[in-house]
Amino acid sequence: MGKLSGIKVVDLSLFLPGPMLTLMMADHGAQVIKVEPPTGDPVRQMEPMEAGQSVWFRNLNRGKQTLSLDLKSDEGQQQLWQLLSDADVMVEGFRPGVMTRLGFDYETVAKHNPSIVYCSISAFGQEGEMAHHPAHDLAVQALSGFLSVNDGADGTPVVPGVPSADMAAGLNGLSGILMALLGRQQTGKGDYIDIAMLDSMLPWCAHIAGSAIAGGDSPRSQSQRSLGGAAFYNVYKTADDKHVVLGAREIKFARTLLGALDRLDLLPLAEMEAGEAQAPLIAFLRETFASKSRDQWVEWFADKDVAFAPVLDFREALDQNFIAERELWVEVDGTHQLAPSIRFASEEKWSPPSPEAGQ
Asked: Which residue in 265, 266, 226 sits closest to 249, CA to CA?
């Protein structure tokens, strides 16, 4: 029995934010019914495949029941109404206005089921001048300001490795749904949640964009303490063209490392403002790290209390011992899955459920 056992979720979302949200609910016992169009969730066709199924699809849709409905047909709409009649939660990720045209907007659904918690996920929200602008994660990151600091040394933005706007929206949606379910215990009524990817992403900049938030200039990576302007929060190339990072700015770590390198004379620079003032220290560390291979540095740092880490690719990351120790990446019946990141001491050891029960 999971924490969400007894909660019925009707999930009309596709791709990433909504399915990630409902996956987290399914992993903890909710009954999630994934309603797909007749052509199926496009993610089903996304490579790579394992055991005849998309790895992406399996890792976002395990434990859900799936049902194909044509919501433009009378039959499909009748079946959806049956599902919603006793549902606790509905999640949808269509462009604003689509659910209203189909007759499944919140007001209409709530008339049939006043206790339902209805969550819409879109790029820019259900109303306003940007509501109907098409966008996936990259465009939202561009318009939120985040892409401007996802840049290289020459200031050119690059495509982010993490779909942060998608993930932030999914997490905000999950939090909002759980809050609404708690509130429903007091009132008996559900609620509507308008989750926008941009709204969800923007608060994540508080630690880097303080100057802009306060009405001033935008931060620039090369002079910002968390974006590349600080020597002890930076990425360094090694002799074998791999990379390592120093990942904490506390002066105790700088003292330990510079002491071990016999360069405590540089310690005052570690306390200077990020940017030009720390440039000599950054230059020294670049030259130093270029003198050994990545693995040699891993060995060198093994007995030193410094926030250091090698930059790993995903193969190396998943093969680490502590990943196995925490059972974060598991193999069951010839398929590999990433384990839930939320676990409860009172619950039994997690094992991947069937990804398509009841299809």
From this structure: 226
